[in-house]
Amino acid sequence: xxxxxxxxxxxxxxxxxxxxxxxxxxxxxxxxxxxxxxxxxxxxxxxxxxxxxxxxxxxxxxxxxxxxxxxxxxxxxxxxxxxxxxxxxxxxxxxxxxxxxxxxxxxxxxxxxxxxxxxxxxxxxxxxxxxxxxxxxxxxxxxxxxxxxxxxxxxxxxxxxxxxxxxxxxxxxxxxxxxxxxxxxxxxxxxxxxxxxxxxxxxxxxxxxxxxxxxxxxxxxxxxxxxxxxxxxxxxxxxxxxxxxxxxxxxxxxxxxxxxxxxxxxxxxxxxxxxxxxxxxxxxxxxxxxxxxxxxxxxx
Length: 300
Ligand SMILES: C[S@@+](CC[C@H](N)C(=O)[O-])C[C@H]1O[C@@H](n2cnc3c(N)ncnc32)[C@H](O)[C@@H]1O
Hints:
The chain contains nine helices and twelve strands. The protein is α/β, with parallel strands linked by helices. Bound molecules: S-adenosylmethionine. The site of S-adenosylmethionine has 27 residues, from β4.
């Protein structure tokens, strides 16, 4: 019987990935494509809980595209929330953080405190949910929160919000009070030892090799910002560095963006390409008309 044509070379890089790699120009990223929020790490936290009891070794985590625009402040949250969760569970870990935007990497490297705007808590159910997340961060990192009514280092309102003519100025948020907590000592130490590794590069070409392959990868709200060529190289790069059985959380808002991943949105990622990358769809978390959130599993 003829073997199935997989498009895989002897080095396991599919031919179609090699083809797009030639002449590819890496993205440099910029503020404005970095929207995020305090709540965004929730799915990763749940998935890491699912896999970590069965690992038998400390989890190696890769977070790609970390975010900074937590409107109206500039603040990266995801790595701090995921790390806090692991620390709260007493799970030692290594983590690689990749982002194409220099300011995102700088924020993570320099940040010593986490801020959450009191007004963001809103009313009713939303207030309860965000409040619980904040309390969880404090509990996981074993600290009591505080409230500030003045600007502290790391509380980065955009300059225009200090203009007295601003419709909604920084002072109005400060009057409500801003919640403050420390970045955990363990996070800061791991940054120094390299157990948390910061990489300012386009994930399509980033050098993400570590001593052990990744058990868990988050790749959410990033692919829609990439060209199809970059997406192909990114998924090949990530998959190459995953452990067999490792999981990758992906979302595709390709129904809205001009560069869909999934074939159902007229993107390039179909069963055959997944096969070539040694990936399968392990679970579809939500499938909307224009967007899909799903988990990929590395099979070999
Ligand atoms: C919309 S934010 C999403 C942040 C976070 N994952 C979330 O869901 O809240 C996209 C992030 O991906 C980063 N990014 C965009 N293109 C990238 C690329 N090619 N490689 C690595 N990071 C990229 C941006 O700098 C930004 O921080």
